[in-house]
Amino acid sequence: MTTEKDAYQKKLRAQLDEWQADIDKLRAQAKQAQADAQIDYQEQIEELRKRRAEMETRLEELRKSQSAAWEDVRSGAEKAWDEMNRAMRSAWNRFG
Q: What is the pTM of this model?
């Protein structure tokens, strides 16, 4: 039986995979950019990479949490999720 926690973990995993694909696309664009633009790309990619790593950590915390405590972990993951979404939109608006 799939619990709400399991469903949420699957949702986070799918989003993390999508974000990784987007980061990889930005890396490919950075390689083709002019030298000065490459610096901007690399800074943005590094920021996205850090935020994605934070989401990986939140997903691991969620996976390890007990049923009663997972709601607390979820609220932290939601905040990190929102921040990652904003950072990704910003990167695509700037470079995409």
A: 0.69
